[in-house]
Each structure stands twice: as structure tokens, then as C-alpha cells.
Amino acid sequence: MLFRSWQTSCKLLSGTCQSEIQFAALEQAQQIQWRLGQVSIAANEIKLPANVLEGLGNPWSTLRPRGGLGARWTDLNVATVGGSEGVEAGASGVIRIIISNLSSPISPVKPLGSYEIAANLAPEGLTWTLSTTSGPLLLKGQGGAAKQSGVNFSGEASASPEAQESLIGLLSLLGKREGDTYRLKF
Which residues pair with 139 in a beta bridge? Predict the structure, then answer.
């Protein structure tokens, strides 16, 4: 069983609550503190199998990813307008997601590679970049999420010269071909 326990305590006079979540995949127990209009999540790290990405829908459910998935984050803070006295709207923190030794049953090339998503949480919203750290499937791009503009991502996929022929089917599933690259967009 991955989920171990959840404990919450609240102080009514100060209007704050503190939660501690014990989860097998977490490096340490996750500390979360909140009050009206403000949430703080303590720095931590988690490691999971890459197949959990299938729950996000396409393209993950089509790719059926295998490999390792890890995330590491600094202290994350989110405050909304109308929160506690002295708290201004805003957000801060950094999240790094590492997908290592990615493979897929629909591709003859194994592993496809390792990838990093670096995300920054700021008052304007969330921005992230995708980059390839190793492997024949080359992915890169950038995106963001903001209240005003919603979620967006624009990137490209290509293959190293020695793997182009073997990865053509997978690349065509990922995006529309433009020369030697395939456009990734949502």
C-alpha cells in the first residue's frame, strides 16, 4: 500500500491548519500548511513508475510509458486575493520532474531517452521547459499556465540520425511533421 497516513490539526484562533501526509513514494512526510487564501507545501521529493502518466490522457495513454518518474520541489507557496491579513496574491516555488529511461511498448527503440521538465511558479502563473537529457528521441519545448490564458505548450520532437527510421511511427503519433521535426502543441 502506497498511502500510509494523513494527519491534520487546526488552530481556530489563528485560522491555520497543518497536515502531514505519509506516502511510500515520498522522500519524507509531506508538510502542508494552509489558512484562508494561502497554502504552503514544504520541499520534498517523490519517485514513481512512469506508467502513472497514463492517467493524464493523451499522448501518455497512447504511449503507455515505462521507466522512472521523479519530482523534486522547493517550498511552494500560493496566496490568493482576499486571504489572510498581510498576505498578497502570488505564488512561488520551483518543481523539477525527471523521466528516466523512458520506453514504450509501441516503439522498438528502448530506451527512448531521459527528460527533464523544469517548472517555475510565480505570481504571473506557472511556466515550464521540457528538455532531453539523453536518448534518441529528442524532445524540447516550453509552456505555461495562467489564469488569463489557460494552459499552453509548444515544442518539437525529433530523432537522432541513427534512430530516425525506427522512430518515425512514434514521432507521427506525437505531432504534425514539419521538415525533420514534429510539432508538439496543446
Answer: 157
Nearest residue to 36 (alpha-carbon basis) of 60, 58, 11: 11
Could you tell me how many helices (H) and strands (E) the chain has, helices first? 2, 14
Please give the C-alpha separations between residue 25 and each of 18, 20, 42, 54, 70, in angstroms, as whole numbers: 21, 14, 16, 18, 9
Cβ 113 vs Cβ 134: under 8 Å: yes
Quote the CA–CA distance of 137 and 46 in Å, as a whole number: 25
What average pLDDT does the chain have? 91
Nearest alpha carbon to residue 103 among 73, 64, 71, 152? 64
Distance CA 36, CA 147 (A): 20
Q: Which of 36, 22, 37, 120 shows the shortest CA–CA distance to 76?
A: 120
* Three-state DSSP class for residue 63: helix
Q: Percent of the chain beyond pLDDT 70?
A: 94
- pLDDT one-digit tens code per residue, 38-82: 999 999 999 999 999 999 888 788 899 999 999 999 999 999 765
